[in-house]
Amino acid sequence: MTAGSESVLELLPMVFADPGEARARAEHVLHSRPSPLHASIAHQVLGIWQRDFGDLRIALRHLRRARDLAARAESADREADVLATLGVALVHAGRTRQGLASFERGVARGSGHTRARVLYRRAYVWWVLGHHREALEDVRRALPVLRQTGDDIWTARALTLRATVHLAVGAVDRADADFTAAERLWETTGQEHDKADAVESRGLAAFRSGDIPAALRLLDEAEERYGKLGTPTFMLSIRRCEVLMAAGLAPEALTEADAAIALLDRMGGQSTRKAELLLAAARAARSAGDPDTAIVRAAHAVRLFTGQRRSWWETHARLVLIEARVAAGRRSGRLVADAAAVAGRLASFGSPAAPEASLLAGRIALALGRTAEAERHLAVAARSRHGGPPPARMTGWAAQALRARAAGSGRGVLKACRRGLDVLDDHRMTLGASELRARVTAQGAELAALAQEASLAHGSPRRLLEWSERWRATVLSAPPTRPPADPALVGSLTAYREIAARAEEARREGRPIPALEREQRRLEREIRSRTHHLRGDTPGYGDRFDACRLLDRLDEARLAELAVVDGQVHILLCGQGRVRRFAGGMLAEAVAEAEHVQAGLRRLAHPGGEARLPLVEAAGRRLQELLLGDAAAHLGSGPVVIVPPGALHRVPWALLPALRERVLSVSPSAGSWLRARETEPPPGGRPVLVRGPGLATGGAEVPELADRYGTATVLEGEAAQVPRVLEELDGAALAHLAAHGTFRADSPLFSALRMADGPLIVHDFERLARSPYRIILSSCDTARLASVGADELLGLVTALLPLGTAGVVASSAPVNDAAVVPLMLALHKGLDAGLSLAEALRDARTAQPDDAVHQATGWAFAAFGAA
């Protein structure tokens, strides 16, 4: 390469087209005895590279050298250009006053086209500092000059920046127009880094307009583009944290933010980015229920923003700090005043977060009994209910509900809660992935709780039932969006299965598996990411619960829905055309008792644990007092359906004395039971029997069941591979899967059944056109579920119910493999005689030997649904 003027000048645009190549060429220039002008350019390129992708201290050294060389070259425009680059670096280093002074000199030294570029970069710095009005003014001055000179690259950058500023103040339509115009210009250039930034910006715009799946897809695409260029993605991490939190994935957002902070610290990167990442981590920790971590991160962010003179950002960090302190249990008049002051400053900035701060001030004031003060703050927050993005409208409706409660208007509370949850329903149904639909419901938990409190105070059991159903198992009210015929997703699932199978084999043989586990986690992230891109295709809100229809379809059955209000269980007993309410015990006591029962069942699954049986039965009697109370005497003689809250999904209901001899089924919600009750079996359906590897009994019931059914499809040995199993399960009338079950509390949709070629996971089941009408899962822990969101459950059972399955038999505890075989054979005998799953399971329990192991095995299994 020669050090001619043209080739050296090409380095500046190259740093955002191919950063690595630009850095290498700049270093080559400096080794070729360049003139002061060319050396200035090379040092500026290296300064930009270090500023954005490396060590900020090294960047400042290069840029100061570039400034001095530009002065020696006696080029005013060259000096102005370097001063602008140096100004950006100084601001990112937290030296705001020095950075702005550098810009003042740059604007004064530059002229025409160069001054326009300086103004663009100062506009960027104003945006970083949160001075949006000043940013828009500098862009307004720069754009006409950049357009007149035909500078497409800098024009596109200016349009992208203006769009980003518009987003910061909530002007989404203006931002969309600027992003669109910028993207057209980028397509005419070779600026690959800028193109990746444009994709990232479109992801941010999609998020601001409420399209989370599109936002996640675009941010992932941007990350791939940055990855090809080998450049860090700190701003992308900040934006993805925001989207992940809106999707209900706060723990993932916290992990991402903390990892980015650690990388930034190792690199010696930008102080401004670190402050923003700390703010993102604080928000994520607060949303994840970790207020102590949120306080530490937010306080650190406040200190950095203050030192950087970034008032807009500092105020947002103070809001999170106050929220975290309140979540940690602090209440004081000082906190009310602090929240109100933050709300006022946010409003002056035009920030969409202002209503959130007013709501916070109102909440604290209410908790302190300052009703008149609370009303002032809540009235301000309530104004946001009529417009803006979904979170702002939900904030407004939450404020309105609290105002109504303080005024003693139960009707007002219910109206506000209904409107607020309608907003969230609209948002939820844009999500195609069942995981996101479930997790995002946490954003409506306060509204749901307020509505239940108001319903309980009103004294109407039916109204309490309707509101409990309004916010229970909403993810089951409509089937998840089926993944498209995506070869990449299918490939990732296949690779995941292979790696998981190899890891399992290595564990059995005692070989080290860290590399396999890392690859398995990487594939899990890839699969989750692709499913999160799915957009919801279900109109409306899914099926809405109808209490009259439920009561009509119950016939002689009784349905007991357990609602939890302010920590106490209330039993809503439905049947005989009415709903009655009975008081139960405290939820915390019931959860603790259920854990004792689970421990006892684990011990009873092995010979020698008989001494635990009386203790387990005594715990069952205590659970009945806590969870059924006086309702136990009013269950009638017919079938019973139990609808527990998420926290009680592992209760072995057949252990409770009042339920032990009954036809008993369990359902995540009354609405899902009703849908299962009305689901028709497939015409000409067939039975499918699957036997996975590694079972202690070898799945001994399967050969006998094959003889019983005659025409059943039997998959075992090498035939029991996931693709073939899914093919046969699709549309089957009855499926019996004898396979090891694995529950993943950390990632419930990766809960699995072990097949010959690896795990059959929940994501695989979601690819079925229609899951089997009845499914029997005969191994341990197949009914275990993870409680997420407001009161949602994720796992194998809840994945199957919206896909066409009307009934499932599964176990919520470890079971004795040998004792399972006679239980399953007796169960199928009842099905062959025309009984429902619940009826057949009741009879199968009764037919078992009267010893502790067989009794515990029977209690561990439950019938879900209504088939």
Automatic annotation (TrEMBL):
<dbReference type="Pfam" id="PF12770">
    <property type="entry name" value="CHAT"/>
</dbReference>
<feature type="domain" description="CHAT">
    <location>
        <begin position="618"/>
        <end position="864"/>
    </location>
</feature>
<dbReference type="InterPro" id="IPR011990">
    <property type="entry name" value="TPR-like_helical_dom_sf"/>
</dbReference>
<dbReference type="InterPro" id="IPR024983">
    <property type="entry name" value="CHAT_dom"/>
</dbReference>
<dbReference type="InterPro" id="IPR019734">
    <property type="entry name" value="TPR_rpt"/>
</dbReference>
<protein>
    <recommendedName>
        <fullName>CHAT domain-containing protein</fullName>
    </recommendedName>
</protein>
